[in-house]
Amino acid sequence: MTRLLYNLALLLLLPYVGLHLLLRSRKQPEYLQHVAERFGVYPSLQPPPSRGEGVIWLHAVSVGETRAAAPLVAALKERYPQHRILLTHMTPTGRQASADLLGDGVQRVYLPYDYPFAVQRFLQHFRPVVGIIMETELWPNLVTACKRAGVPLLLANARLSEKSARRYARFPRLTRSALQGLAAIAAQTEQDAARLRTLGAPQVEVLGNVKFDILPPPEQIAHGETLRRMIGPRPVLLAASTREGEEALLFAALAKHPLGDALLLVVPRHPQRFDEVAALAGKVGLMLQRRSENAPVAAQTQVLLGDSMGELFAYYAACDVAFIGGSLLDYGCQNLIEACAVGKPVLIGRSTYNFTHAAEQALACNAARQIGSAEELLETANALLRDPEACRHMGEAGQEFAARHRGATARMMAIIGRWLLEGQDRE
Questions:
Q1: CATH topology for 218-404?
Q2: What is the Cα–Cα distance from 223 to 208, expressed in whole angstroms?
Q3: Domain segments of the chain as ranges
């Protein structure tokens, strides 16, 4: 009955799907591209794989999951060169991140909405030998279709905050059925595993967070050094992956409490907000320059807008102190591990539920400091920018912290290998 009601709700929402895409396209026109893929139709792609080729399918809903999938994709390509790697997404920014990070080395499409007819078309077209969902995306019809088709579906790098657990708990039967239909679940932490078990997951292994395995690309570090030369000798405070509402708080605080000769480098999480963020700086009278101008940063520039994609590691390399967005307001914090891996002092706000375990450990080893407001952020950053020795100690602590927790990818590869071997035995 629960599944029937779920599918009935999906059916009732079907007329609004086009409207949803149309509304999203007002800020991001890419939402109107590849619409057929969202219903399991892939007319422009290559023919389905031959029997001997095999498809390893990973689902990464958006940018964060795509970046997390990168080390796993690299390991899969190295160990299984005879297989095709298929990456699916739900957002255009996730799809673009895949193109930026992985290029033509993988095939990328949208995962269809969770309509039975759409997910069956998807599975029939690509015939994956195994499916890997990054983090936590539970789609009941997809799980059921994979089980019926004999496709083992694994949940990798699974995380489940208390907030998300409460949301899933509203639909206990549907959630339990989906979790029990998965072939394996690999959680990031014991806390994530406990929440998943409470919702009905039968077996959960704790493997750690694969995001610790993302190493700073040397070419991005070199690119950051070039960017730093364009900035000049000024100290740089980076606000990385900021979310809606956070830039306004930062700019208002900066207008009242200038950073001296330091530069605020702001990189919004979503590219469709670049123009909006530039306008916010202008409203409070701050002098802003865009990274896309690719010009030396003027002495009077107070804010440099990082309006580019695929350069986050370069921005970390170019800064002196990094604030991690999504933590100043209640968004749960973006990935602080990458800044630690580059060796930069990290500042985070109070909202860290997406990275609770990593944030607690980074704070405990003095790789990060926590702030409660935009004003406190600027005050703390100003003190650090004037204390190179403190910055060095925090940066070294961050690198040690990131290195200490690597290895989740290798552990996940062992699980994937077991299911691939079982699939070969069944053939």
A1: Rossmann fold (3.40.50)
A2: 30
A3: 21-208+407-426, 218-404
Q: How far apart are CA 414 and CA 416, in angstroms?
A: 6
- From 30, 37, 65, 219, the catalytic residue: 65
Which residue reads 């570090």 in tokens? 221
- CA contacts within 13 A on the Cβ side of 266: 34
Could you tell me which residues come within 8 angstroms of residue 78 by beta carbon, excluding any fewer than 6 positions away? none
- Between 54-58, 72-76, 102-106, 121-125, the lowest mean confidence (pLDDT) is in 102-106
> Can you read off the two tokens belonging to residue 30?
């890419």
Cα distances from 199 to residues 146, 186, 205, in angstroms, run: 21, 15, 15
For the segment 129-158, what is each residue's pLDDT rounded down to a tens digit? 999 999 988 999 999 999 999 999 999 999
Question: What is the per-residue pLDDT across 317-374, written as a single tens digit (0 to 9) for each?
Answer: 999 999 999 999 999 999 999 999 999 999 999 999 999 999 999 999 999 999 999 9
* Cα distance from N-terminal residue to C-terminal residue, the chain: 35
Measuring CA to CA, which residue among 167, 137, 166 is closest to residue 154?
A: 137
Whole-model pTM?
A: 0.89
Is 65 an active-site residue?
yes
Q: Return the structure tokens found at 52.
A: 């001997």
Residue 356's H or E segment, with its range, is helix 356-364
Domains 21-208+407-426 and 218-404 share a fold: yes
Residue whose tokens read 């299911």: 419
CATH node for 21-208+407-426:
3.40.50.11720
- Asked whether the predicted pLDDT for residue 259 surpasses 80, the reply is yes
| In contact, 151 and 179? CB cutoff 8 Å | no
